[in-house]
Design goal:
The protein has about 130 residues and is an alpha/beta fold. The protein has one domain: 5'-nuclease (Rossmann fold), CATH 3.40.50. The protein contains six helices and five strands; from the N terminus they run βααβααβααββ. Strands 3-2-1-4-5 form a five-stranded parallel β-sheet, with helices on both faces. The protein is globular.
């Protein structure tokens, strides 16, 4: 089964009809959306001029049968801690939200879809890096 996990950039580009993002997401059997991604998206909505419209589009997306929201749990916190420490020791830290997103993708055994090459610093993480 094709399982992908979206970071904020992937969802944002999907909404902009980026061809690779649309194709990758449409071809997936299951699309996972970390609650951290939702928080980042909603923070952006709050500062924009189309908050209500963006929330409605997001709600419709999340209601699709192939979409599942990923919550943080104890296993995710352990994966986060491992990733944070490994990246720190390697001298390649990432923002905390990115590490949480990666931890949730790892927990689910999903491939992360992103436009952010920094995720490639996580060797255990499968990444589909899309080009802008």
């Amino acid at each position: 089964m094709s399982r992908i996990c979206l970071d904020t950039s992937a969802y944002s580009q999907l909404r902009r009809s980026h061809p690779e993002a649309v194709r990758t997401i449409d071809e997936a059997e299951e699309v996972l959306v970390p609650v951290i991604t939702l928080g980042e998206l909603r923070a952006g909505f709050r500062t924009g001029g189309r908050e209500r419209e963006n929330e409605e589009v997001l709600a419709a997306f999340l209601d699709e049968p192939a979409i599942r929201v990923l919550d943080v749990d104890d296993l995710a916190s352990k994966l986060y801690a491992d990733l944070w420490a490994d990246l720190r020791r390697a001298g390649t830290p990432l923002p905390a939200n990115d590490i949480w997103i990666a931890a949730l993708a790892l927990r689910e055994g999903a491939t992360l879809v992103t436009f952010d090459a920094d995720f490639r610093r996580i060797p255990r993480l499968g990444v589909i890096l899309l080009a802008p």
